[in-house]
Amino acid sequence: MxxxxxxxxxxxxxxxxGAFVAHIGLVDASAQVLLSRIAFFVASPALLLTTIAATDxxxxxxxxxxxxxxxxxxxxxTYAVVGHxxxxxxxxxxxxxxxxxxYVNSGNLGIPVAAYALGSASFVAPxxxxxxxxxxxxxxxxxxxxxxxxxxRARDLLVRPFTNPLTIGTLLGLGxxxxxxxxxxxxxxxxxxxxxxxxxxxxxxxGIALRLGTGLGGDIPAGELALTTVLKMIVQPLVAWAVAAGxxxxxxxxxxxxxxxxxxPTAQNIFVHxxxxxxxxxxxxxxxxxxxxxxxxxxxxxxxxxxx
Length: 308
Prior knowledge:
This protein is mainly alpha-helical. 77% of the residues lie in helices and 0% in strands. The longest helix is centred in the last third of the chain and has 26 residues, at 222-247.
């Protein structure tokens, strides 16, 4: 458990450095965008490729994937039902609310948390696979249908995941792990060097965003924001724990990993989707803010209860 807490302390310090350099005016919001884009499109795929390639594939495609899927499905469906019946939300708004309640920040925070607090970035791979290959393409197809009045196309659902660099890096790493192939050293070394940029780049960008980001506001019902926040911070990790420990018999560090990954805050790209489709933007933004703040004590509590 001390190793996990030490990992979180490392993460917190790097985030604080990002917030500090933004506070003193050394960087502005454009630096956060640049760091995030480099980390997302270049460094993170490289890190995932090399990490997963060296991982036992059964660890990635294990019962943790089932528990992760259940943890995401329950809060998403709960919001969809309540949002429709209580607040009469439109289909696109229901999609954004469901994503805000269940789609974790597996990239910007998940990778560094897994790498430094859990010991390996591979622990976040099941969550990445589920979100990038299933949840995101389905959600975007539904948003396209609601925003532009066209039916979701099977081609979009099949092709869209493979345009995401994180998906590409993860799948390439899985391919190497399954086949047992290794990249030649002259190619592997620069990929590893680029991948080493991912975690510090993400954390610095996140610290900048925390310092320069906007606060709570808007006219959404307090009860709706409370619902998405509770579903994300409490219900999702509880369901993941119940399925992993109670139904699948997952124990030890593997159980800690699946619950911690489920307790990560709402992903920042949900606000990007909400803005693009003009659906529930305030709900997405404020849920991200509250779950980002609230996830820290939740993850620390999970670590204390399940850490060894």
